[in-house]
Design a protein that fits this description.
Elements: H1 10-21, E1 24-25, H2 37-47, H3 62-76, E2 86-89, H4 91-103, E3 111-116, H5 122-128, E4 132-137, E5 139-140, E6 148-149, E7 153-154, H6 157-162, E8 168-174, H7 186-198, E9 202-206, E10 231-236, H8 237-241, E11 249-252, H9 255-268, H10 274-290, H11 292-314, E12 318-320, E13 326-330, H12 344-347, H13 351-363, E14 365-366, E15 385-389, H14 394-403
Parallel strand pairs: 1-14, 3-4, 3-8, 6-12, 8-9, 9-10
Antiparallel strand pairs: 2-11, 5-7, 10-11, 12-13, 13-15
Helix pairs in contact: 1-13, 2-10, 3-10, 4-5, 4-9, 11-14
Bound molecules: glutamine.
The site of glutamine has 5 residues, from loops.
């Protein structure tokens, strides 16, 4: 199967290519700055308690379930029951796999609708669970040779509905969206919700960037009328606290959906690591009162503005992100020479990979080729975009600014 093929995942591939030449790494979305002191201390203190070094319950440590319920009850517009409506996972990624495993059946040709560009882990996770992804691309309703808004990337709702078949089980919705930075509006969510109701589908809402929006409100689709019953909302402590290596995430939904998700989780990893669940719980408790979340949001907004300025300066247009921490840059003005030498692993994956690699070798800055976020027949839609992450230090962004001067 394709998920077990010999091809490297895009993250490892671009990290390696960047490391070879010491490029500024704006590729994979990990933070290049350390987590806040109180967050690291929370984990250290957790390790010092003997009980936190043994198995956690499969559903998760009560202290963390309590914090998740406290944060998300207002966001989802209901009092969450931590005993039945939340499960803790080994990262949001494993939460996604657990949901797919719970609701897709091998041999039944169950289908899952993805909106492209779609985070690269969805499709292989669906395949591992025995399902088949069906792709509906976001359409760009503006001329991309200028700076455009992430709002210009739209789902054609008729196209979305036409993609539904009797085998469809799930629609995956990612808001704020990686890599576009689109924050779906309440109206868009209502339309997607209406389609899910008409065809009795589940919504898997990947909302791992819910805390990072810029001048926009994030709306959880599960908070819309009648949507709670058919939605599993996935979140991430790695994203929320800037600790992507901790691998702690969660799924939230009605008992009927979380029970099978938890059953899958129990068979995939059994439980999520205990000390870091406790660390996350303690950090989330402190973050409520120490102003961390708003300070962090402002920091990201500042980094976003800085990265946009850098590309304004060198004259490459981009999509203004209203959420998450990625900038899609349109590099069609960059000419890759016909005879440029690429390693086979890069050249075989098409022009968008070659462009991202060219950025690494010639400008010393690495990004991610969004072609990886499209199915094969739709790869051309990645055009000349390269995705740059701004969850990076000021020094990193400054170094990128200097390196990119070569574009002038
Ligand atoms: N979510 C992060 C990104 O999009 C990292 C994903 C990963 O490494 N699997 O960059």
């Amino acid at each position: 199967p394709f998920y077990a093929g010999s091809g490297l995942d895009v993250w490892t591939m671009m990290n390696q290519a960047a490391a070879e030449v010491g490029a500024v790494n704006l590729g994979q979305g990990f933070m290049s700055f350390p987590p806040q002191c109180f967050i690291r201390r929370a984990a250290q203190e957790a390790l010092d308690q003997n009980v936190h070094n043994q198995y956690a319950p499969p559903r998760g440590r009560p202290a963390l379930l309590e914090q998740i319920a406290a944060r998300f009850s207002p966001r989802l517009g209901r009092q969450l029951d931590q005993a039945s409506e939340i499960s803790v996972h080994a990262g949001a990624n494993e939460a996604l796999l657990s949901v797919f495993t719970a609701f897709l059946t091998h041999g039944q040709d169950h289908e899952v609708i993805l909106m492209e560009p779609a985070f690269d882990q969805y499709a292989p996770n669906i395949a591992m669970a025995g399902g088949k992804p069906v792709y509906v691309p976001l359409r760009v309703l503006a001329a991309a040779d200028k700076v455009i808004s992430s709002d210009d990337w739209k789902i054609d709702m008729a196209e979305l509905e036409a993609a539904v078949s009797p085998k469809t089980r799930i629609i995956v919705l990612n808001t704020p969206h990686n890599p576009v930075g689109k924050v779906f509006t309440r109206d868009e969510l209502a339309q997607i919700g209406a389609i899910s109701e008409r065809h009795n589908l589940l919504i898997l809402a990947d909302e791992v960037y819910e805390h990072l929006t810029y001048g926009r409100d994030h709306v959880s689709i599960a908070s819309l009328p009648r949507m709670w019953e058919r939605t599993v909302t996935v979140g991430s402590a790695g994203k929320l606290l800037g600790v992507t290596g901790w691998r702690v995430g969660w799924a939230i939904g009605p008992r009927a959906l979380i029970q099978p998700t938890l059953a899958a989780h129990t068979r995939i990893v059994f439980t999520t690591n205990t000390p870091l669940q406790e660390g996350v719980a303690s950090a989330m408790r402190q973050a409520v009162s120490n102003g961390f979340y708003e300070a962090q949001r402002q920091e990201y907004e500042r980094r976003r503005n800085r990265l946009m300025e850098i590309f304004d300066d060198v004259g490459l247009p981009y999509v203004v992100p209203d959420g998450a921490y990625y900038l899609l840059v349109n590099a069609s003005a960059v000419r890759v020479p016909q005879d440029y030498l690429f390693p086979e692993a890069i050249s075989s994956r098409g022009p968008n990979f070659r462009l991202a690699y060219f950025f690494i070798r010639e400008f010393g800055v690495s990004g991610i080729p969004p072609a990886e976020f499209y199915c094969e027949p739709h790869r051309y839609l990645a055009g000349d975009y390269v995705r740059f992450a701004f969850c990076k230090t000021d020094e990193g962004l400054d170094a990128a600014a200097v390196a990119l001067q070569k574009l002038k």
